[in-house]
Amino acid sequence: MLITKIEGENNMANAKILVVDDDKLSLTLMTDILKTEGYTVYPFDNGSSILEMVYLIKPSAILLDIILPGIDGFEICKMLKGDIQTEDIPIIMITGRTHSSDVKKALELGAFDYIKKPIDEVELAARVKSVLRYNEYQEKLKAMAIKDGLTGLYNHTFLIEILEKEIRKHEKKSSSISFAMIDIDHFKKINDVYGHLFGDKVLKGLSDILSESVANFGIAGRYGGEEFGIIFTNSDKEGLCNLCEKLRKNVQDNEFQIGNDKVKITISIGACFKEDVKDLKSDEIIRQADEALYKAKSSGRNKVEIV
């Protein structure tokens, strides 16, 4: 899952707001109001590529008109709330309709709030600030439950939960899914030579590399100890191999500073690619990835093995 953290009023003013409305006048008005409040605003006049834009922008909140050409706001809201990477982004629906049934439907689909047209400047600013403040508190609570305290990545329990959800989602779409297990080579020696504080620094540094390397291609988590897991979706086997090799090389080329010493580490990666996910269990794909990891380590380490 991709989360935007907002801490305090000053940072709320730097939040990114995505606005979708095919009414050019309303779109311009909302954009100007939100920019005056200090937000970074991304205006769009249609929802055709909205999911792709949300992945790219990672907005703090979305203002979404119900009536749009092609795909309407209800369908977009449903899509966003049905995707694990976007489900937590708060949505404020915009409507010029007077029917309460429309508002009811929007809220049932997962929208946080709604604003009726014509747009009122004070109301818009207040509702956006309210949703950002609420989301800040929710993210803090959620982070405590799903994040690993040291690395900031998803913890073991939540990583498995995501994997199970992704398997079920890709089973419906008949598309592939992959899981990679990553282990730091000779991590015990690092702790023995440089101490556990430096070992923690290595774990945190590796986590940052993982996050940056797979930001648009996968979901990373700490599996346990010096082991990490990554869920890859929408990638063929060759693409998976390239991503894993790129990750391995990024780690190999990185240096960790301790005093006057520069320390390099390597990782071994075992990945399992599943083109057919029908009846697939999360423990089975993890088991096969773990076996591939064992093969990578036993054959010399600093390698990628894919099954």
From TrEMBL:
<dbReference type="InterPro" id="IPR011006">
    <property type="entry name" value="CheY-like_superfamily"/>
</dbReference>
<dbReference type="GO" id="GO:0043709">
    <property type="term" value="P:cell adhesion involved in single-species biofilm formation"/>
</dbReference>
<dbReference type="GO" id="GO:0000160">
    <property type="term" value="P:phosphorelay signal transduction system"/>
</dbReference>
<comment type="function">
    <text>May play the central regulatory role in sporulation. It may be an element of the effector pathway responsible for the activation of sporulation genes in response to nutritional stress. Spo0A may act in concert with spo0H (a sigma factor) to control the expression of some genes that are critical to the sporulation process.</text>
</comment>
<keyword id="KW-0597">Phosphoprotein</keyword>
<dbReference type="Pfam" id="PF00990">
    <property type="entry name" value="GGDEF"/>
</dbReference>
<dbReference type="InterPro" id="IPR000160">
    <property type="entry name" value="GGDEF_dom"/>
</dbReference>
<protein>
    <recommendedName>
        <fullName>Stage 0 sporulation protein A homolog</fullName>
    </recommendedName>
</protein>
<feature type="domain" description="Response regulatory">
    <location>
        <begin position="16"/>
        <end position="132"/>
    </location>
</feature>
<dbReference type="GO" id="GO:0052621">
    <property type="term" value="F:diguanylate cyclase activity"/>
</dbReference>
<dbReference type="InterPro" id="IPR050469">
    <property type="entry name" value="Diguanylate_Cyclase"/>
</dbReference>
<feature type="modified residue" description="4-aspartylphosphate">
    <location>
        <position position="65"/>
    </location>
</feature>
<dbReference type="InterPro" id="IPR029787">
    <property type="entry name" value="Nucleotide_cyclase"/>
</dbReference>
<dbReference type="Pfam" id="PF00072">
    <property type="entry name" value="Response_reg"/>
</dbReference>
<dbReference type="InterPro" id="IPR043128">
    <property type="entry name" value="Rev_trsase/Diguanyl_cyclase"/>
</dbReference>
<dbReference type="InterPro" id="IPR001789">
    <property type="entry name" value="Sig_transdc_resp-reg_receiver"/>
</dbReference>
<dbReference type="GO" id="GO:0005886">
    <property type="term" value="C:plasma membrane"/>
</dbReference>
<dbReference type="GO" id="GO:1902201">
    <property type="term" value="P:negative regulation of bacterial-type flagellum-dependent cell motility"/>
</dbReference>
<feature type="domain" description="GGDEF">
    <location>
        <begin position="175"/>
        <end position="307"/>
    </location>
</feature>
